[in-house]
Design goal:
- This protein has 119 residues and is an all-beta fold.
- The chain has strands at residues 3-7, 11-12, 18-25, 34-39, 46-51, 57-59, 67-72, 77-82, 91-97, 108-109, 113-117.
- The radius of gyration is 13 Å and the shape is globular.
């Protein structure tokens, strides 16, 4: 069965950086679409960054230029490098994976990990 486990969440000050790591088992990270979502206080869950089976990458406007998504095939992980973090980035971050090779329909989810940005 597919298991996605997030790590790397922490509390940081504004302007700080974090790297989130999603370790996949039962799933190969370069097989299909994977993405990072987040749920922030007072908002619905939103897609932060995604990468499809061809390596095409998309970012939410709010994080473009600050966040970088990448896959590491050697460790079978999906990573999210987050720089210049701001209080509005506070929330629970989720790793998601699609079981469909050419469709980004996410059916596998991690448990989520907390990121807090506060002075």
């Amino acid at each position: 069965q597919v298991q996605l486990v997030e790590s790397g969440g922490d509390s940081v000050q504004p302007g700080g950086s974090l790297t989130l790591v999603c370790t996949a088992s039962g799933y190969t990270v370069n097989r299909s679409c994977m993405a990072w979502f987040r749920r922030t206080p007072g908002k619905e869950r939103e897609a932060v960054a995604g990468i499809d089976h061809n390596g095409k990458i998309t970012y939410a406007q709010s994080v473009r230029g600050r966040f970088t998504i990448s896959r590491d095939n050697s460790t079978n992980t999906l990573n999210l490098q987050m720089n210049n973090l701001q209080p509005e980035d506070t929330g629970t971050y989720y790793c998601a994976a699609s079981p469909y090779v050419t469709e980004c329909r996410f059916q596998h989810w991690g448990q989520g990990i907390q990121v807090t940005v506060s002075s």
